[in-house]
Amino acid sequence: MADNQIVNSPQTMASRVVGSLRDEIVSMALKPGDVISESDIAARYGVSRQPVREAFIRLAQLGLLLIRPKRATVVKRISPDGVRQSRFIRESIEVEIIRRVASQPGPEAAGILEQLIAEQQEAADAKDSRRFHTLDEQFHRTLARLAGVEYAWQLIDEHKIQLDRVRYLTLGVSSTQRAIAEHHVIAVAVGRADPAAAEQAMREHLGRAEVLLAQTIEDFPDYFE
Known about the structure:
- It contains twelve helices and three strands.
- It is mainly alpha-helical and 225 residues long.
- A three-stranded antiparallel beta sheet has the order 1-3-2.
- It starts with a helix and ends in a 6-residue tail after the last helix.
- The chain is elongated.
């Protein structure tokens, strides 16, 4: 009984709604400017409006929803400045992560990374953008684990949401293949225990965010602030 109460607690339900709606917004299932209501979401998840209200507040804090008193809540448009700040935070942390991994990679590190890259290629070949995005995340999360700083990835994950929205809009064939190639360069540098090369490869990989941002603003101007 106690376990069931924990699973169905308002806090747990709110967290579940936050996670699900975040995924929908990042993947563009819910697009910038779309109207979203507490009552509709509560009905979809079979919960009261209280956890949905809490979820909306959290998503607004993350910059994903715009809550307007006595007016409809909408999916917030992407902030170009938010994307640039996301990129800065992510690069600052991940450069230190990859430097640490490549300094003392351990015997299995390169193999683990190459296996993830192979799975990314399979997802790309299948044109499964959602799986590719998940595996891309797993590659970078694995680097944090190999560095012994998994909590650092949690910080990155929370601050890179605006960047993720842009990345999802550009997950075409050319961008996925480029990402795979760049991941391979990173893995090779780790295998050689070459922190300088690994850092350079990571900077080049994450530095493409500015190019992606310019491309998506041109292609989807209505999605941006």
